[in-house]
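Example record

The entry below shows one chain as it appears in the dataset: sequence first, then C-alpha cells.
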Amino acid sequence: MSKKSDHAPGRPALELSGSIWFRSGDQDWGSQKRMALLEAIDQAGSITAAAKKVGLSYKGAWDAVDTMNNLAGEPLVLRSTGGQRGGGATLTPRAKALLATFRALNAEHERFMARLASVSRQAPDNLELIQHMMIQTSARNKL
C-alpha cells in the first residue's frame, strides 16, 4: 500500500509504501503475492487457475506452493492429479488460518500507512528533508 503526500509545486510527491512479509529463518515465503495465490487457490480449486488470476506463470505458482509447503513444516496446499474431472488443489486448515492472520496483519498495516500519510500531509517539508538526508547518507556509504 502506498500513500502520496501533498507537496510543493514543481517537486515530486513523497510516497510512503510498505508491505507485509512472512519469513522462516533467512527465507522470505509469505509475500502479498503468495498470499493472493493461496486465496486464489482456495477460490478456484486449481493452481493453474489461481496462477492466471494473480499473474504468475504455471511453474512460478507451483514453485511458490512447493516453497510454502516446505517452509511451513506441513502442507498448506493439497494437490490431486488426474481423474475424470482433472486435478485440483485445496487449502489445508493451516493455510486458511495463515490467510486469516495475514488479512488481519495487512489491515493493521493499512491503518498504520494511513496514519503515516496523515503525518506526511502535516509536515511534508520535514519528510522530504529526511528523505534527502537518507539519500545523501546512502550515497556516502557506497563510496
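Notes for this example: Strands lie at 2-4, 15-17, 23-24, 27-28, 77-80, 88-91. Residues 30 and 99 are 10 Å apart (CA to CA).
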